[in-house]
Amino acid sequence: MPWFDRRELATIHENAVAFLDRWADEAVRLGWTTLDLFGVHPEAGTIRPNYCGAFIIGAEPVSAITETRMRFVNTTFYRDMPGKPPGGVPLWQFGKGGKL
């Protein structure tokens, strides 16, 4: 995956597990999707940040979540950014030629 090394992927995984333990039910209630959290461009991967989900952009633990925002320690991810293109694939599908 462009731009990620093992350490960065381990951090994404660690933060995702902590998020699921703490925030999963709330995220579902608020309508967050797999692509909102883990999406990447289907061909360019992380090189196209306008396709990237919250955990791909945010490398910190989640501190708050609303319907439209996910707050990390020092940054905020906005789910419905103006001009955000449709599509994308989950990180684990990148390079496999298919969408879920």
Structural class by SSE content: alpha+beta
Helix tally?
3
DSSP strand content:
15-25%
Number of domains: 1
Poorly predicted ranges (pLDDT <50, ≥5 residues)? none
Strand line-up across the major sheet: 2-3-4
Helix content: 25-40%
Outline: globular
Instruction: List how many beta strands DSSP finds.
Output: 5
Query: How would a crystallographer describe the biggest sheet?
Result: 3 strands, antiparallel
Order of helices and strands: HHEHEEEE
Query: Could you tell me the radius of gyration in angstroms?
Result: 13 Å
Give the integer mean of the pLDDT values.
85
Distance between the termini: 18 Å
Question: How does this model look, in words?
Answer:
The structure is a single chain. The chain is α+β, with helices and mostly antiparallel strands and 100 residues long. It has one domain (6-92). 33% of the residues lie in helices and 15% in strands. It has three helices and five strands, in the order H-H-E-H-E-E-E-E. The strands form two sheets. The chain has a three-stranded antiparallel beta sheet with strand order 2-3-4, covered by helices on one side. Strands 1-5 form a two-stranded antiparallel ribbon. The longest helix has 24 residues, at 6-29. The radius of gyration is 13 Å and the shape is globular.
